[in-house]
Structure formats: structure tokens, C-alpha cells
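Exercise 7. Given the encoded structure of a 98-residue chain, write a plausible sequence.
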């Protein structure tokens, strides 16, 4: 049996269902189109807010885990705990950071 006849048989039996075919991307189908949401871009930093660029530092896993634990216990963000520890260390060594 040729392939085209077998395909038609399967289609007739309902074992294979045809798709809805091609449509133009400019055509709108309100029931089928995705919902439109408000913009999800990242919030902009205000000039008074401290900018914290992402840095890729490598820490010992036990130190990082201990910082995560403190952050969770104090319900703070990890970067806040690490930043506070670094500032205290720098001030101890004579570097004045506010």
C-alpha cells in the first residue's frame, strides 16, 4: 500500500488529526493568542540607591553555606550579610567605607 493511501486511512479513522494549518502572524485569534502582560523589565536604580553589579567571586563552599544560613536565620538577603562582613573587615584594616 502506498504511503499516501495509508496516511489518508489514518486520517479518516481519526488516529491522526490535522493541525489548523498556516495563518499569518498578523492575524489575531483572541481566543487562542497569549495573554498580554505588563512589562517585566528589571526595575531601574534610583540615583540614591547603591548600584551593585554582579561579580563572580569564588568562595569556599563552607563559608558561602554559613553566610546563607545567617541570611536565612535573620531573614536577610545573602548579599546584605556578605556586604556587612566585608565592610567590617575593611574597616578593621583601616579602610573607611560607609
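Solution.
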Amino acid at each position: 500500500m502506498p504511503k499516501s493511501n495509508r496516511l489518508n486511512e489514518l486520517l479518516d479513522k481519526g488516529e491522526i488529526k490535522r493541525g489548523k494549518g498556516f495563518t499569518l502572524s498578523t492575524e489575531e485569534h483572541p481566543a487562542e493568542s497569549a495573554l498580554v502582560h505588563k512589562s517585566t523589565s528589571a526595575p531601574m536604580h534610583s540615583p540614591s540607591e547603591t548600584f551593585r553589579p554582579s561579580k563572580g567571586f569564588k568562595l569556599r563552599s563552607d563559608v558561602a553555606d554559613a553566610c546563607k544560613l545567617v541570611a536565612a536565620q535573620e531573614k536577610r538577603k545573602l548579599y546584605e550579610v556578605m556586604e556587612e562582613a566585608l565592610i567590617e573587615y575593611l574597616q578593621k584594616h583601616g579602610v573607611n567605607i560607609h
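Remark. Residues 58-98 form one domain. Students should compare their own answers with the one above.
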